[in-house]
Amino acid sequence: MAKASTTESRVQVAVRARPLNQREIDLKSPIIVSIHNSQILLNKPNDRHNTPKTFSYDFCFDSMYANSSNYASQEHIFQTLGEEIIQNAFEGYNACVFAYGQTGSGKSFTMMGTHNDRGLIPRLCQTMFDRISKEEISTDFNDDTKQSIDDSDDSSAAFSMKFSSSYRVEVSYFEIYNEKVRDLLNPNNNHQALKVRENKILGPYVDGLSQSAVISYSEIETLLIEGNNYRTVASTNMNNESSRSHAVFTLKYTQTLISDSTKGVKVSKVSLVDLAGSERASKSGAQAEYIRFREGCNINKSLSTLGLVISTLAQQQTTTDKSKKPFVPYRDSVLTWLLKDSLGGNSRTIMIATISSANDNYEETLSTLRYAEQAKKIVNHASINEDEPGSIIRELRNEIDKLRKELADAKETKKSSEKLNAEINENEKLMRTITKDWYERVAETEKISKERHEILEKAGISVCSSGIGLEKDKLYLVNLNPDPSFNELLVYYLKTRTSVGRPDATVKQDIELIGVGISPEHCVFEIRNQNQVYLTSINKSKTYVNGQLIDNERHLHHGDRILCGCSHFFRLNLPSERTLLNNSATPAMNTIDGSYYSFVDAQQEVLLNQLAADPLTKELRSFLKESDIEQDKSRILSKKTSDVYEREIEYLKQQLMRSISTNLPDRKLSHKNRAMEESFSKWRYSNILVNDSEESRAFFAKLKQELIRVNALVSEANTISSEMQRQTIFAVMLQIPVSYLKPNERVDYQI
Ligand code: ADP
Ligand code: MG
């Protein structure tokens, strides 16, 4: 593509600190971040040297105190960063924003936001269309009228007004999970993972990714909602953790400018990326090995390569000798390959690093701030992508001709002619896509959107109400998900009889679920007497209500948690009871953030009920039940003494001597449970007695979360094992290093 002169621009780096979340408030975790204009101070309490670490960035957004007048709102962030991106796009520059930070630090909130508090992506899209329609109207008027409409606009907009112009917006939305690309707008594309290829003229691209032609903001809004819904469904069905995937939303904006004598096309690509949780990149040593093992080698690849690309690009800036410039490994991961232009290439790029302000996350915050420091050093070479119309097509055609000639001249091996043929096919395929008429594209987009609707509706999700204008007086289920941005995103309205089961069931199910532990015909919801809901499990399927496995019919109430299989959690909304509960003076249920039970609470409930069946896990149960750590600690400290601790060690020794060897699975399990309980209780008391600190509180809270999570995995593994009719039984074991049992020594734990 013919390029205008390039301008050098540094990657701009913004940091946003979010408010404390409920867990951090419960832990009484101090705030360790303070922001002064473009400087951030990180102050670790109890630090021996106690010198705050200072960092400075292009922008620092203080969103730590929601009620403060300084609170950096979504609107403020859009005004500061988004307006410029739109301006760049209209001028014909590529742009990219990527959000980096640990899970839970506010990446999705900043990029996508919530329905009531929209983030950067929806605001950008809305403003872009507002501006397009403004300019389109203005081009229809005569010059005088134009001036009055657009008085406030800047010079470049005024410049473009002199032309008769037309605007096209195409969007794509995909996620990268475990180095595989999943199209979020066209589920039919995902029967096989999409491949990333690189074309000489067009650069890297995802082969076969859908490009939706959109003509209004409301169309984009629907795409975003449905894309996110599909992402939620896919991640629950495959049991993928969303924190491990990267979501990439791309806007391609094409302007055709026609003046009296010339015609030109400006194309700008805006990539908006919500990265996987950075904690995955910063793990080192044994933990990294363990994660690699568990996640099938690839899961971190994109994130770790991004780190490598950023540090290499930063290094490049300090190397003056051109021949010694380090090699940038863009092609080592799908993400960096696709974002090649955005990093060190033709793009104006912004990184938003999101951090928690709590002491509890000190290490991750420090690592994010250091990462952001590196990104500041990257210099991009952005240029306006302006061409004569059809020049790309001409270039592609020339390339095809050249390849054909090479093929004809080729006297070489079969292998090289195969390669040439593949290249020709690839270029022809791209040609066909590019030369498609706009109306053809709009029609294709409509077709894909219909198919997407059907797929979502077939799964039982109420598409028309997805998030907007939820009919609150109806009976429905919402999904519970560990990722707040996926939580309660899916709405399933209940009919008089709603069946739940797998898509491959002989009878079509109203709500289709895929995943471990889901039976073809799993369970049935029935509405009786207008507003009474009954749930029946079919053939002893794994159906839980409020953590209890049900084996027959169960009358459900508003707010009840339902688990189908191992990972599909729902909450029931029963409007008639909700009103009653709201009116009653007593707090009826555990309310978190104004709603009943979070995903973790629901998961914990299931675990507690499972443990209730095993008398040996009493200790673990009481630990998991703790709601107030302070209160519990005093209880335990008064009850337990180091005598008990020693007695327990003695007991463990006896157990070791006895050397139990049995192949009976149930005994194996209970033995493990016992060992778990013993190790756990010893370690715990030693820790509490010795280390009654902030650090230990945070540690316990984390351990509790990990235990709940790991137990869910174990339960799933056992379900898979029984589905495969294997004898293997898995159980959780807490390994506590011997050194940990000595007072005053604090070592990391492993699960
Ligand atoms: P991530 O995508 O980084 O894992 P999320 O964006 O899902 O994190 O944020 C975690 C939680 O914190 C969400 O419930 C979100 O609404 C909340 N949150 C994040 N940033 C802010 C903020 N600036 N103001 C208010 N709430 C926030
Ligand atoms: Mg997120």
UniProtKB/TrEMBL annotation:
Residues 393-437 form a coiled coil. The keyword Protein biosynthesis does not apply. Residues 498-550 form the FHA domain. Its main location: cytoplasm. GO terms for cellular component: microtubule. Keywords: ATP-binding, Coiled coil, Cytoplasm, Cytoskeleton, Microtubule, Motor protein, Nucleotide-binding. One of its GO terms (molecular function) is microtubule motor activity. It is found in: Cytoplasm, Cytoskeleton. SMART domains: FHA (SM00240), KISc (SM00129). GO terms for biological process: microtubule-based movement. It comes from the Eukaryota. ATP binds at G101, Q102, T103, G104, S105, G106, K107, S108. Pfam families: FHA (PF00498), Kinesin (PF00225), Kinesin_assoc (PF16183). Residues 10-378 form the Kinesin motor domain. Belongs to the TRAFAC class myosin-kinesin ATPase superfamily. Kinesin family. This is Kinesin-like protein. The lineage of its organism: Eukaryota, Metazoa, Spiralia, Gnathifera, Rotifera.
